[in-house]
Amino acid sequence: MTLNMTADPYSKKAKRYDAFVEPFVRALRVIGMNMFPLGKGMSVLDIGCGTGTHLEIYQKRGCTVIGIDSSPAMLEVARAKLTERAELHLGEASHMPFPPESFDLVLAMFLLHETPARIRSSVMKEAKRVTKRSGRFLAIDYHPGAARFPRGWLYKMVILFMEISVGRKHFRNYRDFMANGGLEPLISKLGLAIDRKKITGGGTVGLYLLRSN
User: Domain range holding 103?
Assistant: First the structure.
């Protein structure tokens, strides 16, 4: 779930990342998989794949899995988890080394909110470019709408703590993402169509299954 290839903000956190984050996001992965189920042999790209946990779920379903991330520390954990059965790349989400229309499903989970504003559209364009016309792009990220009490308020506090803990630059990108309306303005700008949409976590998280018009 990382993309800025400067200093690695996850260098000291990668090995503990799953233990801390996975309890909060596991249910979202299941919801996302049910929104667009994939069968054996289908191809999945996870942009900002982090420790590879999302890819591992699809790998167990018989999918061909590929990930790209800008954090060497995160990819080290992912390689240990997925072994040689997955293709993992160190690289930028805004310039990916994949041909057009390569994947049945492209994932971007909690990626766009930490992407600098100047390249968010480029990341979305790349995701659109590498998704097959018959495939889908599943974007999961924070939702800027009103949080419902009490669950949404609790999640908001947890999210705020997590975003602050990653670092000042990350938190600044998160605040900009939320102030500019989250995912929907980016989706509209690229002319992507929303196949399915689900807002969960007490109104704090949005899942968007997207296709090209």
Answer: 14-212
pLDDT per residue over 183-209, tens digit each?
Answer: 999 999 999 999 999 999 999 999 999
Torsion region of 163: left, alpha or beta (phi above 0 gives left; psi -120 to 50 gives alpha) = alpha
When divided into structural domains, the chain yields a total of 1
Kindly state the tokens that stand for 94. 């805004």
Q: What is the pLDDT of residues 107-149, one digit of tens each?
A: 999 999 999 999 999 999 999 999 999 999 999 999 998 999 9
The per-residue DSSP string of 169-189 comes to HHHHHHHHHHHTTTHHHHHHH
Longest dimension (CA), the chain: 45
The residue type of 81 is K
In this structure, what CATH number is given to the domain that contains residue 80? 3.40.50.150
Residues in the chain: 213
The pair of structure tokens assigned to 174 is: 């998160």
Secondary structure element (H or E) that encloses residue 82, with its range:
helix 72-82
Beta strands in 112-159 (DSSP E): 131-142
